[in-house]
Amino acid sequence: xxxxxxxxxxxxxxxxxxxxxxxxxxxxxxxxxxxxxxxxxxxxxxxxxxxxxxxxxxxxxxxxxxxxxxxxxxxxxxxxxxxxxxxxxxxxxxxxxxxxxxxxxxxxxxxxxxxxxxxxxxxxxxxxxxxxxxxxxxxxxxxxxxxxxxxxxxxxxxxxxxxxxxxxxxxxxxxxxxxxxxxxxxxxxxxxxxxxxxxxxxxxxxxxxxxxxxxxxxxxxxxxxxxxxxxxxxxxxxxxxxxxxxxxxxxxxxxxxxxxxxxxxxxxxxxxxxxxxxxxxxxxxxxxxxxxxxxxxxxxxxxxxxxxxxxxxxxxxxxxxxxxxxxxxxxxxxxxxxxxxxxxxxxxxxxxxxxxxxxxxxxxxxxxxxxxxxxxxxxxxxxxxxxxxxxxxxxxxxxxxxxxxxxxxxxxxxxxxxxxxxxxxxxxxx
Length: 430
Prior knowledge:
alpha+beta
């Protein structure tokens, strides 16, 4: 396992045989993935423990969970796959993972990974799916990851753990579980219309319509970055917050009402034709003033970090190009690739957050010396290692294709991943 991890980390974009470097090592890795005791959880057990140790140093931990699919349709001979969408012939695996982050968005490591394939022969009508208990639904993944956040909270009693999910996580059963385990906190972007008990003439109202009628509690200026669908712009969001009593779904009255906090942030004065920004958050965090409401919004803005991790896993580690014969082998390799992808995003963020620490917090002595010698073309390396920022920029610019122009900012995960791959080759050549 350790040798496979070193090989894949040194060459994250290469195929398994290329990363291993020899037919004998490749055959050994295939035998390893075929072993009955090698699976997602056994491979990640040590990583989970290391994540908890890192997290114990933090006052606030954001446990962000999300789902991504892995498409192996280009490898039709791979066995044990299942459909990942409604389109015919699109086969692969689904992964739901939870990554622990600092309040600043530095990835501390994974705390839970669930991987599965869908049975193509099982097709249920919408009503039938609705009537199933949550434990028999795919959406139970959110509750399973919530329990991982609870375990992390138990391992980090001096910290506050906040489990976060996007709109797919707007599941009433998840809120019920969060109220049962109040030590960890929950923060979810809402997607459903929810009934709320009010003191007004109308006893039950839609919570979001009721919130929109309330006077704004504050204004939040926000710089929206450019995306493929919009231009960059500076905008203002009206912020509202309230403690409410959510009512259970009409078909599930046995779940009972829940007292939670809701926070909304709605853009005012959006340009003509532009979709206004609108965030609706449900949380078990205490939100009794505007500062706490703005904190909840700030926490949720870090959720996109897990999407960066998923992009790194796919483009930086090429997990969808693995040809291992069946889904069980892929799962073992995926576990290693996920740790490799985490190390890449961890280094990328670390170089921005604590740029002045010695690079030895991440790089081995042989690595940074080989890097400095290659860049300076001088075999006499300095006694003192460069800072982490100096080392990552040297690696990204000279080895990873990062241009480093004035407007380029800091290197991203793509340049860091490519730089690490070439750095290992340079180190091996001495």
